[in-house]
Each structure stands twice: as structure tokens, then as C-alpha cells.
Amino acid sequence: MKILLTGGAGFIGSNVIRHALSYPSIEIVNVDILTYAGNLESLASVNTHVNYVFEQVDICNAAAIAEVFTKHQPTAVMHLAAESHVDRSIDSPSDFMQTNIIGTYTLLEQARIYWQALPKAAQDAFRFHHVSTDEVFGDLERPEDFFTEETPYAPSSPYSASKASSDHLVRAWHRTYGLPTLITNCSNNYGPFHFPEKLIPHVILNALAGKPLPVYGDGSQIRDWLYVEDHAKALLSVVRNGEIGETYNIGGHNEKQNLQVVETICDLLEELAPNKPAGVINYKDLITHVADRPGHDQRYAIDASKIQRELDWAPQETFESGMRKTVAWYLANPNWSKHILSGEYRLERIGENL
Questions:
Q1: Of 72, 201, 258, 313, which residue has the fewest beta carbons closer than 10 angstroms?
Q2: Which of these is catalytic: 134, 167, 229, 303?
Q3: What is the pLDDT of residues 67-104, one digit of tens each?
Q4: Catalytic site residue 300?
């Protein structure tokens, strides 16, 4: 299997690539334009792998994407490239419309053109796997409710609306053109190589620097947390063995309030990083409640029984074990975060492209 994977320099994409390349039979063509969230340092362990190729290409550039298809002749697409930060989508929604909607449309069209020109056997083997989010479903009102693959869409933010739009495009290309597609909707990911503006790495790094730990509102918003390496295994299982035209929800079975997440990180840092910054007695003293985000969803929770039943996948990490691994990774890899926070990773990239 040769997979054209978009967004491979991002958080989830880089984890998928590292996992996929543990299989000698899988080749990866990483297509990434390298926006602010793309970091090739996350792929340092595989950048010389014989089954790995990187192409710096914008998924909105139809001619460039067509050239990638022609050059590499992939047998599958895994589409992970996306603008994904809700706060950024509220402040500047246009980038989300362009990347998540127009980018997905462009990729679908070029995949369709490429797929339709393949011999029949290669057409039958080809698949287009679109990686989406549980945020397209909006939020849940009752504690006994869970998102299933049949839950109606009700996105709340420009980000989730753009992802919902991309999901609809994928389904339309399957129904109208017969393109062999798969969709997955996942819960909140966390783990190594997570961009520092996201909640968990932001809290870890702020705490280590003695800075405030911002919590929206009272912190009672509930998310289902999925360790990123569990997600990577699920995605590879879907692209290899999922049924064409189907959607699979992927969740971690770990519902936690945002405040609980922050407090868990503080407790782990008390144990793993006891030498605190000057003036800090307890990491929890840094917790600061700030004005809530506009349109903030209250609760997400995934019913992942379909993927467990049909593809025999289940998360291996509990919230406690995954969080311990995550905090330990950031403590052991300070330079990765420092390069991002300083902007050095982008300056190095600019220099390489001159």
C-alpha cells in the first residue's frame, strides 16, 4: 500500500506516519504545505526512511496535487490536512474555509480524476480516507447520550462547520462519482508532538514556565480524550480494512471536564517536575479562569462500538496512562517545544526554501 497522506507534518499526521512506517509493506507520500502547525522536526526519526517521501504542496493547488498523483501513483489517500484550532477559526475563519472546504474539494477532484484513469483492479483497491472530528455533531445535552455514526450534524464554530462541509463533500463524491471513500470522526487527541497552542501542551509548558494556566469559564466542559497513538492505529486499520462508503467514530472512552484535565497535569508535574519555577508553591495555584469561548460546546462523547465490533479496534491507553506518557514526553523533549515557541522551526524552514 502506497498512501498519499496530507498534513503529515502536523500532530496526528506525524504520529500516523511513524506508526505506518513500522510496516515494511506500507509506503508514505507526505503532502504538507507546512503552515504554522506543520513541523518536520516531528518526523526526524523517519525522514530518511526508504518508504517515506515528502512533498511540500498546497492541497488547494490542483495542478500540484495532480502532479503528485501522477508522480507517485498512490493506492490510497489519507486526508488529514486541516486548519483545526477553534479559537483561530473564530478570529479568522477564512483560512478554515479555504483549507478545509476548498482544499478537500480540490483533493477529491484530483483523486477522482486519477482513480477513474486506473485499471479496474487498481480502482477496486483504491480508497480515499477522510479524517474528521466529533465537533461536527455539536454538543450533547444528556449525560447518557453519545455521538454515533448516525448523529445529525450541528456544528457550532467556523472550524467545525468547515469540517462538516468537508465530510459532506466526501460523501457526495462517493455517491455521485463512486469514489471509494471512508470517513472517520475522532474525539480530542493528545500526546507527543502536539502543537503548543492546544490545551494539554499549553498547560504543561505554561506550568513549567510559571505562567497562568487559562481555563475557559468554570472548566466544566467535557471532552472524550483519545491518545494520539491509539488514534493512529485506528486510522491505519480503517484505511486498510474499512468498508467503502462507511463512517467510523473513534473515541478514547475517557470523558473528562477541562478543569479535571488541567488538574491532572498539575498533579503529574508535582511528581515528575517537583523543582518548580520561582514563586510557585503548587502548580494548581497557576490555574486562572478566563471568559468562556463564544459558542463553546459543553460535552462531546463518542460511541466507538462500531469500529470495535467491525475492525476489532479499541484504545489501549487510559486517560491516566496516556497523560503520564504525554507529560513525560514534554519533559524529555524540551527543545522540540522551544523551537516552536521561539519560531525557530519556521525560520529554519524558510532558510531551507531560499
A1: 72
A2: 134
A3: 999 999 999 999 999 998 788 899 989 999 999 999 99
A4: no
Question: Is there a contact between 13 and 40 (Cβ–Cβ < 8 Å)?
Answer: no
pLDDT of 343 strictly over 80: no
User: Residue 248's domain spans which residues?
Assistant: 2-194+225-253+296-318+346-353
Q: Give the pTM.
A: 0.92
Sign for the pseudo-dihedral over CA of 81, 259, 251, 300: negative
C-alpha angle with apex 144: 138 to 147, nearest 5 degrees? Answer: 35
What backbone torsions phi and psi does residue 93 show, to the nearest 5 degrees?
-70, -20
Q: Which residue has the cell 471532552?
A: 223
* 134 given a catalytic annotation: yes
> Rounded to an integer, what distance in angstroms lies between the CA atom of residue 133 and that of residue 124?
27
Q: Is residue 240 part of a domain?
A: yes
pLDDT band at 295; cut points 50, 70, 90: confident
Question: Looking at residue 90, which CATH number applies to its domain?
Answer: 3.40.50.720
Rounded Cα distance between 327 and 255, Å, is 19
Q: Which of the following is catalytic: 52, 105, 114, 159?
A: 159
232 CB neighbour count, 10 Å cutoff: 21
Choice among 58, 135, 229, 263 that is catalytic:
135
Tell me how far apart the alpha carbons of residues 323 and 332 are, in angstroms, rounded to a whole number. 14
| Residue 236: φ, ψ to 5° | -65, -35
In a domain, 326, yes or no: no
Q: Strand, coil or helix: what is 297? A: coil
Please report which residue ranges of the chain form alpha helices under DSSP H.
11-20, 62-72, 86-91, 94-96, 103-116, 120-125, 158-177, 199-208, 228-241, 258-272, 305-311, 319-332, 334-342, 344-353
Q: Which of 304, 300, 331 is nearest to 184 (CA)?
A: 304
